[in-house]
Amino acid sequence: MSNANPVIGSVLVVGGGIAGMQSALDLANSGYYVYLLEKSPSIGGVMSQLDKTFPTNDCAM
Amino acid sequence: MNIELKTLCEIRDIRGEAGNFQVEIVQNPRYIDESKCIACGACAEKCPKKVKDPYNMGLSQRKSVYVEYAQAVPLKYAIDANTCIYLQKKKCGACKKICPTGAVDFDQKPETVMLNVGSVILSPGFAPFNPEKFDNYQYAKYPNVVTSLEFERILSASGPTMGHVSRISDHQSPKKIAWFQCVGSRDMNKCDHSYCSSVCCMYAIKEAVIAKEHEGDSLDCAIFFMDMRTHGKEFERFYDSARNKHGIRFIRSRVHTITQIPETDDLEVRYITEAGDLKTEVFNMIVLSIGMETSPEVVSLAKRLGIALTPGNFCETSSFEPVSTSRAGVYVSGSFQGPKDIPQAVIDSSAAASACGEILSAARNTLTKVPEIVPETDIAGERPRIGVFVCRCGINIAGVVDVPSVAEYAKTLPFVEFTSDNLYSCSQDNQDSITQLIKEKNLNRIVVAACTPKTHEPLFQETLISAGLNKYLFEMANIRNHDSWVHKSTPELATQKAKDLVRSAVAKVALTQPLKEAELQVNQTALVIGGGISGMAAAGSLARQGYHTHIVEKSAQLGGQALNLFQTAKGERIQEKLSELIASVAQNSRIQVHLNTTLGQVNGFVGNFKTTLSTTGSEQVVEHGIAVIATGASPHVPTEYDYGKDRRIITSLELDKKLMEKDESLKSLAAAVFIQCVGSREPERLYCSRVCCTHSIDNALELKEKNPDMNVYILYRDIRTYGEREYLYKKAREKGVIFIRYSLDNKPQVVRNNGKLVVKVTDHILGRPMELETELITLATAIIPNRDEKLASFFKVPLNADGFFVERHAKLGPSEFATDGVFLCGTAHYPKPIDESIVQGKAAASRAVTLLARENIHTSGTIAEVVPTVCSSCGVCVSICPYSAPSFIEATARFNPGKAQINPVLCKGCGLCVASCRSGAIRLKGFDNDQIFAQIFALNEAV
Question: If we measure between CA atoms, which residue out of B146, B107, B367, B138 comes closest to residue B259?
């Protein structure tokens, strides 16, 4: 990128499920400012509704 | 700190170009001021309007003002405008009257917000298929027919039945449950989705196993399926144990209809068995394994943003750029990219982050915020001056425990200088006030009696830091989860217990000393081991994000197994793309390729590795901060089906070679037979090689294309064309490829007689032996792990029973190891196709960049330390540590030779070594014996 066309050091992540959260965490920890957009009142997505996950039987929460 | 949550928001439009987008978003009203809401729950308690709770899939009720679930982030209430009495009829307003902080604001309106960002990642997720229109199964009509997502809530301890498996109609425990697979998947007639949703087979098995765990072995679980698709890592083994250990019945049949039996509400199922008999069976409950679909809102969003979609309405991507959408600078991850499970979504998401980093690295750290550093007060030599803050947690604690009396009691304890009680200790104003009090009262140790350190310790530690106190001079007493929540009916005793817990915490904190966190620099160079497609993807991504990267390849050229492959499931010619990829790696000035090279020795640890590379006789030491293991896997060489005895019997890769060489003889074949699962899903190799079904079907279609009159047979056990690969399976059937299923105990036989090549197999529909005369047999051979024990010991990383590397966490850490600074991608992790290998290569790069970007690593303060004079050099700590932190000091060392030492950078403070040390030579800082004993003895009075 040339200096005339500077890039912006922030990223918009659309969707706050497991995928969006992982992207947001990686980006924030790599030096970018992240907006994590979620249509519902809280993040977590469908994974938060699952009981346990295979194979560790960890609580999905 | 650098993630800004924008909840209740929707994206309207994206303008601009990659690197500089203007995004228009709509912020919908919460009707609760987030900055004021303290989540006390008073509003929901008063709200008179009950509605179905979507979080529990409508199986329970919640109020119109609500939090989605107890652990919601942000933990702020919201008002559901569609059901709120005030917002609908301008009456009520009970929540507004009761709210102690005045957070309710009915006047909020949707607002348009503009954001300026460098790139966008779309991860809008999926919508669960709604089976109401699937009328054979009468989901809408019969109460005991539930969806799999409803069943997840039923299994959940926090769900509507508190984890007790019960029927909707009468709340009785079912004795027999059936799962129906492929509801909303692999079906054009009823749901218009011909793709496979990829996850349902596995979750159905999981639900059945957990249901049996909850309800005992007498619960009968049956899964009705078409093909069992357990193609993920460790899935086949789970399927095997579900069948053989848990006694779950697997019935290969698509159920046609179910009828409800009047009075009992039981469900009668009619189906045709594999033998062709019509059977009737009664179940108490039926779970529909619903698939994934892209919601209509997401489809219209994609259209609005100019993002191309696949026939199944997933985001269109190529196999070589699997997280790039059709619009530059806009990336995709998760189930919008294609139906997939959690680990695959987590891999994608890290890959999408890498893709953003690749175009934005020039602007790294330009917009992020850095915490302000307050100089730490030296408390050496000071006597303890303890401050105790007792939290009411709204009514959560104060509703049961007499909080003021606990605070009053704390004043009488030794070294306590100050106590107070707060409505919410965690609110921002209380944080500020604690900071102020620490300074004013000269406090040097803090106890907060409130909720759990698991969620709140970091917050209070931040408060200590901002007051200039070492963050380890802190202790929490959990008087909520361990007290008020569990002793609701005995408030007096609960108050007494709160006092006991506070006394115990005070006794411990008085002995606490400030702990230091060492800092060390992270070498900014990366080492990628393996020059196959995933290794190159990782290296390319690291280099484009600004990091100098070495690739080590043992052979004489880059490319790995991809050099042997013809085309992808999407029909892309692999060799063309592979040459481009190799060229881009070779031309990148930040990448140094070491061919014909192996690893001689690895020293050091995260941030500071020193690796010796051996290249045909010469040696070179490379210093690097991180390592990516991308060593791939190998094709199985079959010993069965007369392989090697007849040139007409070949492997999949050998057929690919013929296809790449445009072998003319393929056109004239009258018949070709593919045999699946050669070496996979066998007792000694209990995993699915994931790629072979798609590979064979793809090549079968290629043969049909060359010669439509050719008889092409695929002999299989289960067809596992997951996701949109299913289209190929459908196309193959349409083109006349004949699929014949065989079982493990009745495998096909290859007979060579007088130059004739015949495959004998029992047809699963006719139940009769068949003889297929052919001129070509292609064996779909397994992908075999390299079982590289030397590499595993170099980097102190584990291998599983099959010989694949074991990742940090099967779901949440698929592209990294538990050992810090070492990452994983490609078929060294598990068999996978090209798109997934590239995605994981990028994901490993992303995970590595999160470490490299820190430049310095701070060790934790609470880590283990060996007292060398007591150490007996037994080695238990070395073998037990999951993070490879302990090691022996070299025998030739001047001090403490042969004794154990713990690398503070690798230690996570789990305490396993401390508890296991037979000499008592290891201490865990911050959890010293005297501290723990003081804590226990302080409770002495209580018993």
Answer: B138
The confidence score (pLDDT) of residue A4 equals 54
Mean pLDDT of the A13-41 span: 97
**C-alpha to C-alpha distance for B46 and A55, rounded to whole angstroms:** 42
pLDDT at residue B777 is higher than 90: yes
- Chain A residues whose CB is inside 8 A of the B366 CB are 9
Nearest to A31 among B124, B334, B365 (CB): B365
Q: Which residue of A has its CA nearest to B3?
A: A34
CA distance A48 to chain B (A): 9
- Chain A residue with CA closest to B71: the answer is A61
Model confidence pLDDT, tens digit, residues B841-886: 999 999 999 999 999 988 889 999 999 999 999 999 999 998 889 9
Cα B678 versus chain centre, distance: 30
Class of domain B636-782: alpha beta
CATH classification number, B521-632+786-857, choose in 3.50.50.60, 3.30.70.2690, 1.20.1250.20, 3.40.50.300: 3.50.50.60
What pLDDT shows up at residue A2?
A: 43
Whether B115 and chain A come into contact, CB under 8 Å, resolves to yes
**How big is the CA angle at B157 (ends B151 and B160), to the nearest 5 degrees?**
60
CA dihedral sign of residues B828, B829, B833, B835:
negative
The verdict on domain B29-109 having CATH code 3.50.50.60 is: no
pTM as predicted: 0.89
Structural domain B127-293, CATH architecture: 3-Layer(bba) Sandwich (3.50)
Please write the tens of the pLDDT for every residue from B606-643: 999 999 999 988 999 999 999 999 999 999 999 999 99
Residue A51 and residue B155: Cβ atoms within 8 Å?
Answer: yes
What dotted CATH number matches B859-941?
A: 3.30.70.20
What value does the CA radius of gyration of chain B take, rounded to a whole number of Å?
31
Q: What is the residue-averaged pLDDT of chain B? A: 95
What are the extents of the domains in chain B?
29-109, 127-293, 386-510, 521-632+786-857, 636-782, 859-941
CA distance linking residue B509 with residue B388, whole number of Å? 11
* Centroid of chain to Cα B258: 36
Confirm whether B521-632+786-857 and B636-782 share one CATH topology.
yes
Which of B638, B641, B637, B639 shows the shortest CA–CA distance to B750? Answer: B641
Question: Rounded distance, CA A53 to CA B613, Å?
Answer: 40
* Residues in a beta bridge with B78: B66
- Residue B611 parent element (H or E): strand B608-615
Residue A15 CA to residue A1 CA, distance in Å, equals 28
pLDDT digits (tens, 9 = 90+) for B344-376: 999 999 999 999 999 999 999 999 998 788 899
ipTM value, please give it.
0.94
Q: Cβ(B223)–Cβ(B208) under 8 Å?
A: yes
Chain A residues near residue B364 by CB distance under 8 angstroms:
9, 30-32
Instruction: Give the span between the Cα atoms of B568 and B907, in whole angstroms.
Output: 43
DSSP string, B820-855: TTEEE-GGGTS---HHHHHHHHHHHHHHHHHHHTT-
Count H helices, E strands: chain A?
1, 4
Residue B151: closest CA among A60, A18, A47, A51: A51
> Which B residues, 539 through 558, put their C-beta within 8 Å of a C-beta on chain A?
545
Report how far residue B7's alpha carbon sits from residue A36's, in angstroms, rounded to the nearest whole number: 8
User: What amino acid occupies position B890?
Assistant: E
Which residues from chain A sit within 8 angstroms of residue B850, using beta carbons?
A: 25-26, 29-30
Q: Does position B925 have pLDDT exceeding 50, yes or no?
A: yes
Distance CA B469, CA A25 (A): 28
A4 touches chain B (CB under 8 A): no
CATH code that applies to domain B386-510: 3.40.50
- Looking at residue A1, its pLDDT comes to 41
The rounded distance, in Å, linking the Cα atoms of B234 and B82 is 45
